[in-house]
Amino acid sequence: MRLRLAVAAALALTVTACAPSTSSPTTAPSDGGARTGTLKVWLFDEPNRAPKDAVVKEAVAEFTAAHPDTNVDVAYLAVDTRSARFKGAFNDPASAPDVVEYGNTDLPEYAAAGGLADLGPAVTAWPEGADLSADARASATFQGTLLGVPWYLGVRALYYRTDVFTELGLRPPTSQAELTAAARTIRAQKPELFGIAVGGKYTFGALPFIWDAGGDITSINSAQSRAGLKAYTDLLKPDNCPPQQCADLTGGKTVELFASGKAGMAIIGNFNRAAVDAGAAKGKYAVVPLPGSKPGSIAPAFAGGNNLGIMRNSQRPALAADFLTLLASKKYQTKMYAAMGNLPTLQAARAEVAGQDPFLKPFLSTIDAGTKFVPLDPGWGKIDAQAVLPTMIEKVVTGKATVEAATDEAATAINAALGK
Amino acid sequence: MRGTRRLLDALAILLAVGTVFPIYWMVLAAVKPAGEIQSLQQRPWTLAPSWDSFHRVLAVDSFGRYFLNSLLVALVVVVLSGLCAFLGAVALTRFRFRMRTTVLVLFLIAQMVPIEALTIPLFFLVRDLGTQVPGVGLNTLGSLMLVHTAFTLPFAIWMLRGFVAAIPEELDEAAQLDGAGRFTVLWRILFPLVAPGLAATSVFSFITAWNDFLFARTFIISATDRQTLPMALLVFFKPDENDWGAIMAASTLMTVPVLIFFLLVRRRLVAGLGGAVKD
Amino acid sequence: MTTALPAVRTRPRRRVRTPLWLLLPAAVVLGTLFVYPMWQLGLLSVLDFRQAQVSGGQPTRFVGLANYTQLLGDAQFWSVLGATVFFAAACVLATLAVGAALAVLLTRISKVPRLLLSLAAMAAWAVPAVSGSTVWMFLFDTDLGLVNQTLGVTGLNWMYDRYTAFALVGAVVVWHSFPFVMITLYAGIEAIPRSVLEAAAIDGASAWRTFWRIMVPVLRPLLAIVVIQSIIWDFKVFTQIYVMTRGGGIAGQNLTLNVWAYQQAFAAGEYGLGAAIGVVMMVILLVVTLLYLRTLRRSGEPL
Predict the structure, then answer these.
(1) Beta carbons of A94 and B137 less than 8 Å apart
(2) For A236-242, which contacts have Cβ atoms below 8 Å and span 24 or more sequence positions?
């Protein structure tokens, strides 16, 4: 017996010794790395990316003018497959880009993977850094280390078509029941439109319903969560948004549907404003907070936002910090607001845009009403990459599983990923 | 009898049209103006062909670069794998040694290995290799050349065997009697005779490397200038509305070289497939 | 078919030392990039190897068969496995049926249609998997697709139902792979002496009978290769599934082992689990092909 144990132990040891080498995070060049050369930047691809592209190009031009012998190689990543790209970059130090945009939900996972550099010193040295609110800093901090600069905030609210509402004599909904009724009326009266565009892959469209019902991701199979999920999936019915067309819609596709005038309403963000303005819905829409089930209440929105970070494996951290702080500066945050509708994170920039633009009012009310967030845990990244919540929604929508079965299955996966 | 034949002829033509139709539709969509692609009344022709989509693909998204990358990878793979396969095929047909059957069976089994399953270990292998040997690590075209050379090799050897075996041994025996060395026999006698077969074999190596999606996706992490075509194509699947015109133009660009290659070696390909299986 | 090259096959009489130097290049390439990774794949599948180990500096642990037990206990695994086998089998059968039928058709038609059909097939064969997938997606697009518009249906999403989605992907796979079967078998049939076929025709044998009674037995070794190649290719379909169903379809209904393994490893960071799926896949493929080879051997055919 003892011998067998010893053999097993020896075997285990040899086996692990032959495994592919693991790379513990390398330390950044202490002198800040080269000041010339190519800076690789990863940003998110988005619906109607052109205005974002234009602002980034402007920043790049300004940057390369101030930094001789540099150029900036910007790549836009598809959001739904970003996980594999980021993991590849963590796994191979030599291939890592320098500056990256990432969702604030991804922070714990990336931090645990050792992928992001400590930005504390860089932000302290940055004059505008002091203008970041404590909340904003906290949202980019994981276990005491600042791993990003919040670039913009994004919350979602209810966009609706003013012309359609007027024609059908509808009022902007102030409760979930009114929302559902309005959606069905639109679909019934104008069959070429979806009442409210919702999608099976649109996690952040569904979560407000779950949160409003008192549920949460960590208790996805509770009675409250189930009630919220049911409220959302009931919208994916032929009388509003038929499963055939809507079951595999992502958030981006619902933006496109609303923008091109194929939906009466949609749950989309302040950052989608440019995309909507680029379509047929331009000038024919207004925004109100997404109502909760209690009349007059606001459903808790997901406190979205993207950070800019520097990869731990970046070979040019100093140059990367220069570019990052330029892109995160008040000047470019304001420009990004004008281009895309991205809500600035620097207090000075936010005050400037909020004061002069009534468009932001419903979004700010939504924030004031209280927002929610996904579990602050590295396991969230896995839940997201394994599409646990979209799968759950789609199973209900397509009738492959009941609300109960789908939520139980999702709960198992969520608990496993969160290590419970 | 004649009636049946006519009927079958018609059927064959119909099937031929059906088979090429998707290709026709691809090229057509590539030259349609944007308005006609978005149309809810698709017509199987266009009266206003436009190069807009090709312009978007080539000028805006530097598809030319990706095209060259793909071509470079595929050609290197063709040469390397062809060379190794030629030598291996000669060894397996011209010599009778112990373990010969074992080696043969191993090559057959190698073809069954799902290379996709090997992505995971290969990712780490290539990463570690890259720290030792410059130019073959992740994010380089070299990494793609390496793995595809390996993956195309077993089939190439298997197929080339037929071609080598078809050359009468009397030829190299005569040359050896004339005092030619082993090396001379190999390169001066056998190689030219096997060359047509090599061309057919290379088609398979070429398309394997050219079509590769998985490894390009996994290995080329952040080097945008080292992407290959299949990955670059997916850029036009947008989060909002797919740019079908550009997707079809890019697909067309991707298809044309293979099509040309195929039609060029058509006859030999048929013979080669026969050879590969006739043992 | 050994009759084709009898002189060569029966006389490789130089019994010499292993021609190492000729095999060396191939051996080096395959050793490093095939054999070694296979060993590593097996190794990874018994390790706790996740993102935290790969880049987070956590120690790698030997976990024995834990990855496999997790896999076998996962309902999704069985569903994906079933779908993979079913899909592959359907693709293989369809490819063989279409390819063989067209090969026979080729022998019975006039020159021009024959040329047209073989050129068309060559063209379909040449189309890269990614391009082929995209154009079929466009043809079957819900709103802009020619098919829906011609049928006059609005809002029919071909990817909505699990089976129509698989059928559509399968159609693309068959479209890509039937030319190989057709051309190979046609070459084989052409090599059958005319007199044999003519004799059958004079005896009044139907096309169906001629095919099964004369062509199939003669073409057996050829069919073996074609079947094996089809199994190998169709079991491993990745690109078409990945591109057309956008990584597995609605609620993951169109996942196959390949795509699933890839996502577990590279998206979810479960490299050990992904490797275990890869091992399972490899074992299935080896067993299927070896079984097939054995039945061939039993029936007296040389490899």
Answers:
(1) yes
(2) A236/A198, A236/A200, A236/A397, A239/A184, A239/A187, A239/A188, A239/A195, A240/A180, A240/A183, A240/A184, A240/A187, A240/A194, A240/A195, A240/A196, A240/A198, A241/A183, A241/A187, A241/A194, A241/A195, A241/A196, A241/A197, A241/A198, A242/C155
Which of the residues B123, B144, B225, B240 would you substitute to probe the A interface, choosing the one with the greatest number of A C-beta atoms within 10 Å? Answer: B240
Complex ipTM value:
0.88
Torsions phi, psi for A41 (to 5 deg):
-125, 130
Q: What is the pLDDT of residues B191-247, one digit of tens each?
A: 888 888 888 888 889 988 998 889 998 999 888 888 898 888 888 888 777 889 999
Which chain C residue lies closest to B24 (C-alpha atoms)? C135
Chain A hits for B123, Cβ within 8 Å: 88, 91
In A, which residues are within 8 Å of C264 by CB distance? 386
Q: Which two tokens stand for residue A64?
A: 């390369």
Q: Is C46 helix (H, G, I), strand (E, B) or coil?
A: coil
What integer best gives the mean pLDDT of chain A? 90
Query: Do B139 and B271 have their domain in common?
Result: yes
Residues B124 and B258 in one domain: yes
Say which CATH architecture domain A37-154+304-372 belongs to: 3-Layer(aba) Sandwich (3.40)
Q: How confident is the model at residue A420 (pLDDT cuts 50, 70, 90)?
A: confident
Residue of A16, A80, A248 with shortest CB distance to C62: A16
Q: Examine residue B58 and state whether it is found in any structural domain, yes or no.
A: no
> What pLDDT shows up at residue A22?
65
User: Which residues on A lie below 8 Å from C44 (Cβ)?
Assistant: 19-20
Confirm whether B94 is domain-assigned. yes
For residue B55, being part of any structural domain is answered with no
Q: Which chains touch A (3 or more CB pairs under 8 A)?
A: B, C
State the count of interchain CB pairs (< 8 A) between B and C: 320
* Backbone angles phi and psi of B109, in degrees to 5: -65, -35
A103 touches chain B (CB under 8 A): no
Which among A48, A73, A256 is the nearest to B224, CB-wise?
A73
What's the CATH code of the domain at B82?
Answer: 1.10.3720.10
Give residue-wise pLDDT tens across range A267-293: 999 999 998 998 899 999 999 999 999
The pTM of the full predicted model, rounded to 2 decimals, is 0.88
Q: Are C43 and A18 a contacting pair at CB < 8 A?
A: yes
Does residue B115 lie in a domain region?
Answer: yes
What are the tens digits of pLDDT across the range A293-344?
999 999 999 988 999 999 998 989 999 999 999 999 999 999 999 999 999 9
Q: Which domains does chain C have, with CATH numbers?
A: 30-298 (1.10.3720.10)
**Residue A302 at interface with chain C, using a CB cutoff of 8 Å:** no
Beta-carbon contacts below 8 Å between A and C: 116
- The CATH architecture annotation of domain A156-301+386-417 reads 3-Layer(aba) Sandwich (3.40)
Instruction: Find the closest chain A residue to C261 by CA distance.
Output: A386
Comma-separated ranges of CATH 3.40.190.10 domains in chain A:
37-154+304-372, 156-301+386-417
Helix (H, G, I), strand (E, B) or coil at A75: strand
Instruction: Give the confidence band of A21 by pLDDT, cuts at 50, 70, 90.
Output: low
- State whether residue A276 sits within 8 Å of chain B by CB: no
Domain that holds residue B250: 63-278
CA distance B241 to chain A (A): 7
**Are B136 and B215 in the same domain?**
yes
Q: What is the dihedral of CA B78, B84, B87, B88, to 10 degrees?
A: -110
B191 & B151 share domain: yes
Question: Which chains, if any, share at least 3 CB pairs under 8 A with chain B?
Answer: A, C
Max CA separation in chain C (angstroms): 77
In 3-state terms, chain B is what percent helix, strand and coil (to 5)?
Answer: 80, 0, 20
A97 contacts in chain B (CB < 8 Å): 222
Query: Hey, what are A407's tokens?
Result: 């939520």
In C, which residues are within 8 Å of A243 by CB distance?
160
Residues B27 and B122 in one domain: no
Same domain (yes/no): B212, B109: yes
Structurally, chain B folds into a number of domains equal to: 2
